[in-house]
Amino acid sequence: MEYFLEVFADIHWGAVLQIIIIDILLGGDNAVVIAMACRNLDPHMRGKGILYGAGGAILLRVILVAFAVSIMKVPFLKFCGGILLLWIGIKLLIPHDEEEKEIHASKRLWGAVKTIIVADLVMSIDNVIAIAGAAEQAPGHHQMWLVIFGLLVSIPFILGGSQIILKVIDRFPIIVYAGGALLGWIAGTLMVDDPGISPHFPNLPNLHVEGGIAGAVFVVVVGFIIARLKNSKKTSG
Fold first, then answer.
1. What is the pLDDT of residue 225?
2. What would the mean pLDDT of 70-78 be, rounded to a whole number?
3. Where does this one sit in the cell (predicted)?
4. Cα–Cα dist 190/77, whole Å
5. In 65, 108, 145, 187, which residue has its Cα 20 to 30 A from 135's Cα atom?
6. Whole-Å CA distances, 232 to 13, 34, 48
7. Which residue has the higher pLDDT, 70 or 92?
8. Is residue 3, in this structure, part of any structural domain at all?
9. Is the pLDDT assigned to residue 185 strictly greater than 80?
10. What is the chain's alpha carbon radius of gyration, rounded to the nearest angstrom?
11. How do residues 76-89 score in pLDDT, each as one tens digit?
12. CA–CA separation, 18 and 24 (whole Å)
């Protein structure tokens, strides 16, 4: 009991508060991805998809924080991650065929969970730096526990946000394109911020913004075209 009291007294509560705030602010992106990935699931499977996807994403983020500094220095890692996120954004914009309802429910569920985890893995490359930076204010032996605590506290906000976004998407499907644009923006900024890319464009001070806009436009345009082609093929068939 005395040990836990000592640990409690030694906790850097300022760092805890910062981590929680960062998680809540950054959780908006996660909520959008989770909602978009689960929107094609049967209503009774959505809860599981959201819970499993968020749980896997949070676990991966904890692991990423431990290697955050090293990961950020690897050339072209963020660029490759951005390309992967572009593909995920486009994929989430493409509607499912009616025939896909025949697919076993568990396969669709785990497919959505896999999409959530992969997307969050890519999106978290930058986010974990902020979390790790906040944790550095605390004693070294408490840093990882603070990160885990902060991430656990953020789970209800991510889950609640996903549920709200899902309801909005059900009512206004066009909002899916806003989610796709968000993923494209994140992908574009990741790619141009890569340490193997950004040094080649020293004369472009707004490269971050331009990359984000390009990524958002790319995902929306390509996703829209593929969706239209798929719908046209379905109608003609």
1. 92
2. 73
3. Membrane
4. 9
5. 187
6. 57, 28, 33
7. 92
8. no
9. yes
10. 19
11. 878 888 898 899 88
12. 10
Question: What share of the chain in percent tops pLDDT 90?
Answer: 7
The vertex-198 CA angle with 193 and 202, nearest 5°, equals: 135
pTM for the predicted model, two decimal places: 0.71
Burial of 146 (0-12, 13-18, 19+ CB in 10 A): buried
Residue 211 resides in a domain = yes
Count structural domains, the chain: 1
Report the greatest alpha carbon distance in the chain.
73
Q: Tokens for 202?
A: 């020293």
Separation CA 196–CA 193 (nearest Å):
8
Poorest-confidence range of 15-29, 45-59, 97-111, 114-128?
97-111
In a domain, 158, yes or no: yes
SS3 94: coil
233 and 94 Cβ atoms separated by less than 8 Å: no
| Residue/partner pairs of 74-78 with CB below 8 Å, 24 or more apart | 74/195, 75/194, 75/195, 75/196, 76/194, 76/196, 76/197, 77/125, 77/194, 78/125, 78/126, 78/190, 78/191, 78/193, 78/194, 78/195
Name the least confident of 55-64, 73-82, 85-94, 133-142. 133-142
Task: Report the 3 state secondary structure along 168-222.
Answer: HHHHCHHHHHHHHHHHHHHHHHHHHCCCCCHHHCCCCCCHHHHHHHHHHHHHHHH
